Amino acid sequence: MGKAIVKCNIATYEINEYVVEVDCEKDDVDEMILARAWKKLKTEEGALPYGNRTAEIIKRI
């Protein structure tokens, strides 16, 4: 099992950036990894601000 580093952005009046490391398999689809990152971020931060959300995979290890 590998890891993926994901950068999540929430655009409110200011830009909130978060970097999350999630577990992933070699053949996992990008959308699945991004969904795991948002889920992990939600559990770590509790409440997230409202705004336009984007995420990108920075690196797979």
Walk me through the topology.
Elements: E1 2-11, E2 15-24, H1 30-45, E3 52-60
Antiparallel strand pairs: 1-2, 1-3
Structure report:
Helix content is 26%, strand content 48%. By secondary structure, it is α+β, with helices and mostly antiparallel strands. It is built from one helix and three strands; from the N terminus they run E-E-H-E. It starts with a strand and ends with a strand. It has a three-stranded antiparallel beta sheet with strand order 2-1-3. 16% of the residues are buried. It is elongated, with a radius of gyration of 12 Å. It has one helix spanning 30-45; strands at residues 2-11, 15-24, 52-60.
Summary, kept brief:
The chain is built from one helix and three strands.
Number of strands: 3
Mean pLDDT: 94
Radius of gyration: 12 Å
Please state the overall shape, judged from the principal axes of the Cα atoms.
elongated
Question: Largest sheet, order of strands side by side?
Answer: 2-1-3
Identify low-pLDDT runs: none
Distance between the termini: 9 Å
Helix/strand structural class: alpha+beta
Biggest β-sheet, characterized?
3 strands, antiparallel
Spell the H/E element sequence: EEHE
Percent of sequence in beta strands? over 45%
Count of helical stretches: 1
The share of residues in helices is 25-40%
